[in-house]
Amino acid sequence: MHDFTTTDFADLEYEIAPGSPALRDLYDHIAAGASSRDSDRTHPHDVLDLLRQARFGALRLARPEGGGASLREVFQEAILLGAADPNVAHIYRNHFTFVERFLLGSTDARRQPWRETVRRGGIVGLASTELGRKQIGGATPFQTSLIDSGDGLRLNGTKYYSTGTLYADLILVRAIAANGEGVAVVIPTDRAGVERVDDWDGIGQRLTGTGTTNFHNVLVDPDDVVADGDNPDFLLPFTSSIAQLFLTAVNAGITLATWRDAKALLKGRGRNFYYAPAPLADDDPLLQQTIGQLSANAFAAEATVLAAAEVFDQVAAARAAGQEPRALAHDASVAAAKAKVIVDELALRSATALFDVGGASAATKGKNLDRHWRNARTLASHNPAIYKAQLVGVYDLHGTHLPLLGFF
User: Fold this and answer.
1) Furthest-apart CA pair in the chain: how many Å?
2) What is the pTM of this model?
3) Fold of 9-121
4) Sequence-distant (≥ 6) Cβ neighbours of residue 176 within 8 angstroms
5) Could you tell me the mean pLDDT of each successive run of 10 residues in the chain, 408 residues long?
6) Which of 178, 258, 275, 345 has its CA 20 to 30 A from that of 327?
7) What's domain 126-228's architecture?
């Protein structure tokens, strides 16, 4: 086990790659501080610096750039990082979606600086949501504007729920140009006029940096801008599905974490309930059954996410071959929706069952085991599963496809 508070990844003797011992050691290090960070609301800047050094965010780039991972491998790592700390894993959700939409397969020279940032381990955040923007029946234009002020392009507006942006190196901002076209603006987070506000007050996922982002007359270079019409990959059907499955992968990680913590809790108990069938808690068949159920939940959650991820790899392979796999993309969206319906329930059920092996003492603030339920509940509240299940049912019954964009 390495001391990751002092070790520089450049000095490690083995490769940082999916499934590598280095990443497993890093996840163990991250998990060791997760509870205290949550309790104290300590932002994981040091952890993210280690992940930058490991170039975790470059996994999907080409192999010569230090990547080469399949989507299945990325989702596997997201599950394991989610088990270590779901806050940290969630920060990478928008990052990997950006890589898929803007970097893979692109030969646009303007994007090379973004690719280089990601290659070096940099993190990309997102600023898209606007509370005053109508969604039902077709989204209205963004209120955030990009206009030519006479001394260059200027970005002005306010975004909410900017997950990961508090820690990011680059930020993708959705805005409306003067000609009325939607645009993506990708700028450094430390550029003058960018204000990141740490005001997210959720019951869970407290440290994802999901706060407000203000843009005060931010100077934008034309090369920072990609018009929607110039970025076909961004407008492909079901391009939000990867972001949806990533959240589900983090919840699958929470099922692993609850199983892990339940075992430790049970083995650490010095006495059992006075009416229990065995004097030692870990010999109690009822508590053993609970551990077995948690183990099964974790197995099912992980397997479900990875099965869905394999459909996404089929879509990626088809697109890399120059095809437009609309039917496959819909299959991936359906798989992501089904995975969410199942995994969210498993995560919440596991986070509650965890307390069955510990008794009332497990509910103390010091143990902070309630963070698993709080985190799972917050993640599950993103685009609730009831909508997913209903639309999957309509598809099964009538063949009506899921929505092309938005939360599918």
Assistant:
1) 80
2) 0.95
3) Butyryl-Coa Dehydrogenase, subunit A; domain 1 (1.10.540)
4) 141, 142, 143, 144, 145, 146, 182, 183
5) 54 66 94 98 97 96 92 98 98 96 89 96 96 67 93 96 97 95 96 98 97 98 92 77 97 98 92 86 93 98 98 94 91 98 98 92 93 98 95 98 86
6) 345
7) Beta Barrel (2.40)
